[in-house]
Write a structure and sequence with these properties.
Length: 103
Amino acid sequence: ADATGKWTCQDKGPDDNVVILTFVFKQEGTQLTGTLTIKDNSDKILESTSIRSGTVDGDKIYFATVLSDGARLTHRGTIHADEITLTVMSGGGPSEMTLKRLK
């Protein structure tokens, strides 16, 4: 599986408003780098951060992000062609999201 590309999903922010998450991944071998940008539904950037400690092992993907408020999130998931199912671990416990590859 190759994670390289732009992936997106919608989620609820801490205030229950819809946010759009866009991950841009670059995979070189098993190393994964990239960025996460979080926008509100009026396209305003709320957050932008780098992918840290990213690895890809077969169809499994692992990485971490640190938000501007210091929140540390760990992400682990499975790549299925143009979809990644992710479990995100944070101080509030796990949450699930499905990313779709942008063509």
